[in-house]
Amino acid sequence: MVTPPDLAVAPDPRDVAQLADARAHVLERIAETCARVGRDPASVTLVAVSKTVPAARLRAAIAAGLTILGENRVQEAEAKTGEVPGATWHLVGPLQSNKARRALAAFHQIESVDSDELAGRLDRLAEEVRPDERVPVLLEVNVDGDPAKAGFDPTGLAAAAGAIAGLPRLDVRGLMTVGRLVERPEDARSTFVALREVSERLRASWPGLGEDLSMGMSDDFEIAIEEGATIVRIGRALFGHRH
Question: What residues contact 224, with CB distance under 8 A and at least 6 apart?
């Protein structure tokens, strides 16, 4: 029998201090970028991407103020949620339809809804799993047309918007994209511009679509903020390199 962790044991103070310093540095970069483009830093939400980070270190992250955690896999999140009290969990990786029920139970927000079929399944299951709320979701858009990435084609999203807009259990708060791997952060700008433009076009015909734009990671989040990101997904700049 596996012994559950002793949640009464305080996190390692060294981990808390290290993560607090990393958080402060990222928040300072967010604030400097916002000042450069005339935005309020409070308009940008920091999601700490915690894949492969053990639960003990995530308890230190919570103590350091990193309370919104992003996981790529349902299974990994399920193993952590009970061991990391005080966290708000976002799914930022791909979601298989057969794990939709488990994702609804594990995550507060699902950022990676990549098809109208998945949206419909989440809507149907939400009535059973989370009957007292509308589930916050983002629609993932493959704005670069990268065959290796999931997400709606921008044209396909426009065609599916009518059906998704009519789903009563989902609160579609905006769009998400996964940027290209580039050598210079500036080279990612076109991806972020494209997602913002897709959002603007779509909201013109779908007023209920939220304005959130989840885009930008450790290497390029400042460029993403300049182009309108409201959520940045930061892993390495907070937790360091991981295998």
Answer: 179, 188, 192, 213, 215, 216, 232
